[in-house]
Amino acid sequence: MLPLLHVHHIALICSDYAVSKRFYTEVLGLRIIREVYRAERQSYKLDLALHGNYIIELFSFPEPPPRLTRPEAAGLRHLAFAVSDLAATVAWLDQHHVSSEPIRTDEFTGRRFTFIQDPDGLPVEFYES
Hints:
Layout: E1 10-14, H1 17-27, E2 31-38, E3 43-50, E4 53-60, E5 79-83, H2 86-95, E6 104-105, E7 112-117, E8 123-128
Parallel strand pairs: 1-4, 5-8
Antiparallel strand pairs: 2-3, 3-4, 6-7, 7-8
């Protein structure tokens, strides 16, 4: 068996760096670990953490192609965060003008969840633990 320890990070490419940086830091509350501009690639790389754990690399590149379909295209389907209070999460999102889908219940676990979209349309799930 391959000795995997845990997921190290998830890399996302955004179309508008300033908008996505604000979304992931101010709306979702992720903390900036490091921000680097790579002039040779005309690209920002923003390392983000949740509760001290490095989880997301946010990249900008000149004119990235759009995501083909949502969410059934091959590749990353969605990004999911565990939350303790889904109603409070939805209220926070509403205060930040981020609309969420109606709350659903997982038929296998009985847990509630909802989806939003990041600034580039990537589905982001909030799953009540």
